[in-house]
Amino acid sequence: MDDNKSVITNKEKSISELYKELQEMVASVFEKSNYTSIRKSINQFAELRFIQPNFESYHNLTHRSLNASTDEKRGLIFS
Question: Tens of pLDDT along 15-59?
């Protein structure tokens, strides 16, 4: 995602193109039934501020949270 910051700044790709790529990446990793579910998941990350506006970067604790072994540990990271 950090690589996309320069892509957005230089207008090499639009936000919608990058969003579509992100959907495809998420779909390849997580088995969701359809792209609506994937978009909801991405939007939830944005609402929770894991992802910064315009997908320019992510919160510095995002990786730690995603790699936490339990929901309890995950909750403690952002508390």
Answer: 788 888 888 888 887 776 688 888 888 888 888 888 877 777 778
Half-sphere exposure of 14 toward its Cβ, with a 13 Å CA cutoff? 3
Tokens describing residue 40: 């909801």
**CB half-sphere exposure, 68, CA atoms < 13 A:** 14
Beta bridge partners of 58: 51
d(CA 25, CA 9): 22
Give me the residue spans of the domains in the chain. 2-77
User: For residues 52 and 54, what is the distance between their CA atoms, to the nearest angstrom?
Assistant: 6
To the question of pTM greater than 0.70 for the whole model, the response is no
pLDDT at site 7: 62
**What is the rounded CA–CA span in Å between residue 11 and residue 5?**
10
CA distances from 65 to 29, 61, 68 (A): 17, 6, 5
